[in-house]
Design brief:
Distance between the termini: 18 Å
CATH topology: Rossmann fold
CATH superfamily: Alpha/Beta hydrolase fold, catalytic domain
Number of strands: 8
Helix content: 25-40%
Order of helices and strands: HHEEEHEHEHEHHHHHEHEH
Radius of gyration: 18 Å
Strand order of the largest sheet: 1-2-4-3-5-6-7-8
CATH architecture: 3-Layer(aba) Sandwich
Largest sheet: 8 strands, mixed
Number of helices: 12
Strand content: 15-25%
Oligomer: single chain
Structural class: alpha/beta
């Protein structure tokens, strides 16, 4: 059992884009040249895609699955930290960034099925399509992507070898999500009609900022409706229905080694979410670390370049230990 806490002072101001962590990262010509896109699943008329990044044609390389954030309501697979991507590729990993169907048009059970199917597709098709070793798979993601990362620790079989959750969460039914949020409630109220105009009936697997779906998210946080709108279940009426959706309630001895990274002044996903996950991992005896970034906001908003470099360094060391050295 391993517990590690690193406190790094960060002074930051929090913008809406940082809070939502949905701003896409542009790709250089070199990065675009090493990217190939695949459709890993089709549901009705909705194609669900994955971008595969790799350098060279070596076989049996370890693979890192990246899952974007956006509250499960918005975002797309293009939202990946370019600097982290570059470092992962230089370290010899194949990186696969996946889309998944978005809420509220698609509810959480189906979103989690997309996660499972993406990992299954990688195991079955990845060795032939892009030369991965399916037995050396790690999953990582930020915010809602961190939640899905932690969910993969008990929903994906065979289990990933390692998980990295950037400011993610293990509980989706607590007061922080199921009650009006103090931080978001200070902002001008989003009218109900405007919120629901931002979403619709068509199933989608990616969105951009121009879709205005963040207004629906803001409405959900102001009203405490996120769990009900995303999962399709009211946590007040059916609290046990959320057992199968919450990683913190599903930690067993089989849970993968996990690295948690979180800022203490996160106004979107409380730092307590990573603390609670670390406490449960510790109780069960699962290898884990909690990297605490003191005074940082969501997405480590305002962090100095040196801080992010230390975070990336720790991520690479963690992957090397559990994805390469031990396998």
């Amino acid at each position: 059992m391993q517990f590690f806490s690193l406190r790094i002072p960060v002074w930051s101001t929090i913008s809406l884009s940082a809070v939502l962590s949905i701003a896409p990262w542009g790709l250089s010509q070199e990065e675009a040249a090493i990217k190939k896109s695949y459709t890993y699943k089709t549901v009705g008329e909705c194609k669900i895609d994955a971008d595969v990044y790799q350098r060279g044609q070596e076989k049996h390389r370890p693979v890192v699955v990246w899952i974007h954030g956006g509250a499960l309501i918005m975002g797309n697979r293009g939202q990946i930290d370019r600097e982290l991507l570059r470092k992962l590729l230089e370290a010899g990993y194949v990186v696969v960034s996946i889309d998944y169907r978005l809420a509220p048009e698609t509810k959480l059970p189906a979103i989690l099925e997309d996660l499972e199917d993406a990992c299954k597709w990688l195991r079955l098709q990845g060795p032939e399509l892009f030369g991965i070793n399916p037995d050396k798979m790690a999953v990582m993601g930020g915010s809602a992507g961190g939640y899905l990362t932690l969910s993969s620790g008990f929903r994906v079989e065979p289990r990933p070898k390692a998980l990295v959750s950037f400011w993610g969460y293990g509980d989706i039914a607590g007061d922080w999500y199921s009650r009006p949020d103090p931080f978001y409630s200070k902002q001008p109220a989003v009218p109900k009609a405007e919120a629901y105009r931002a979403v619709g009936d068509q199933v989608i697997s990616e969105s951009s900022a121009k879709n205005n779906r963040h207004r629906f998210y803001l409405y959900c946080r102001q009203q405490g409706l996120w769990p009900k709108e995303v999962a399709g279940v009211d946590p007040d009426k059916e609290p046990r229905a959320f057992d199968r959706f919450c990683p913190v309630r599903n930690v067993t001895a089989k849970y993968p080694p996990t690295l948690l990274i979180h800022g203490t002044k996160d106004t979107d996903v409380p730092y307590e979410q990573s603390e609670l996950m670390a406490k449960e991992l510790d109780r069960i005896g699962v290898q884990h670390e909690l990297m605490t970034i003191r005074d940082a906001g969501h997405g480590l908003a305002g962090a100095k370049p040196g801080v992010m470099a230390k975070v990336h360094e720790r991520v690479l060391a963690f992957l090397k230990e559990y994805l390469v050295s031990k396998n």
